[in-house]
Amino acid sequence: MNRKVDLHLHTYASDGEWSPIQVIENIDKNNISIFAVTDHDEVGCIQALAALLKDREDLTFIKGVEATVTYKGVEHHILTYDIDETNEELLEMIAFNRQVRNVANDQLMDWLKKGYPHISSADYKAYDYNPYQGGWRAYGYLFERGVIRDIHDYFHKVSKFEDTRVFLSPELYLPKMKALGYKTVLAHPSKYAESDFYEESHLDYFRSLGLSGIECYTTYLEDPKNAQYYVDYCHQHKMVITGGSDCHGGFVGRRIGYPDVDESMVRLW
């Protein structure tokens, strides 16, 4: 029997709701045997998970992070696996991305203050964020201050804010991760396209920089059958094939273990 796989999960270390213990509880409930936690530019729960799993020979836990890069002016996510969460070069890179977000969030608060005078960047900096509620710090602050009702309202409110964030470049990040021996996978590629099919020229460029593989099975596909487009590309170029739910606990609404992926469908390393 092929074991069930979910290689894209989030905890409260970034914008998920679950603690390490809750991740394991939900892994068990959903009969998942091979999984990865890939928080956004954050590795804060990796060591706690590894400690909790030290006697669980029935589970395969892959240490990961979902790093952000800016490519052609668009935010892209690179799932990075088999990492050493203490490596200084990796930590420096993801810390850079977090600082980019911090600066942008301060600017966002000052921009929103024009319509909501009870908020400010100073008040935001003093805000005591509860990570169990899911989302991220700016989301939690605006929710608790009554500026937004939910995630859809958040993105509606900020849609006219000029996003000037520039994250790590793929030209910097991908070769460095390859040199460190980590595996890099382009997350949910259809998210960056106007259809299920991200242009092959972009995939080729990422591959030329050292990209290891593609997250072929994702909830972002309008038609799940179109995962085959990415699977075929990976087979052609002998690349890693992964799949994952991008589950954030109860936040966002993506279910752990969906799409249904087992080890016969993926090609790891």
How would you characterize this protein structure?
- By secondary structure, the protein is of the alpha/beta class.
- It has helices spanning 20-29, 46-52, 88-112, 121-126, 137-144, 151-158, 170-179, 200-208, 227-236; strands at 4-9, 32-37, 60-71, 74-81, 183-186, 213-217, 240-243, 261-262.
- The chain has an 8-stranded mixed beta sheet.
- It is globular, with a radius of gyration of 19 Å.
- It starts with a strand and ends in a 7-residue tail after the last strand.
- The mean pLDDT is 96.
Topology:
Elements: E1 4-9, H1 20-29, E2 32-37, H2 46-52, E3 60-71, E4 74-81, H3 88-112, H4 121-126, H5 137-144, H6 151-158, H7 170-179, E5 183-186, H8 200-208, E6 213-217, H9 227-236, E7 240-243, E8 261-262
Parallel strand pairs: 1-2, 2-3, 5-6, 6-7
Antiparallel strand pairs: 1-8, 3-4, 4-5
Keywords, please?
alpha/beta; TIM Barrel
Number of domains: 2
Strand content: 15-25%
Cα distance spanning the termini: 20 Å
CATH superfamily of the largest domain: Metal-dependent hydrolases
Q: Residue-averaged pLDDT, rounded?
A: 96
Summarize the structure.
With 269 residues, the protein is α/β, with parallel strands linked by helices. 35% of the residues lie in helices and 17% in strands. The protein has helices spanning 20-29, 46-52, 88-112, 121-126, 137-144, 151-158, 170-179, 200-208, 227-236; strands spanning 4-9, 32-37, 60-71, 74-81, 183-186, 213-217, 240-243, 261-262.
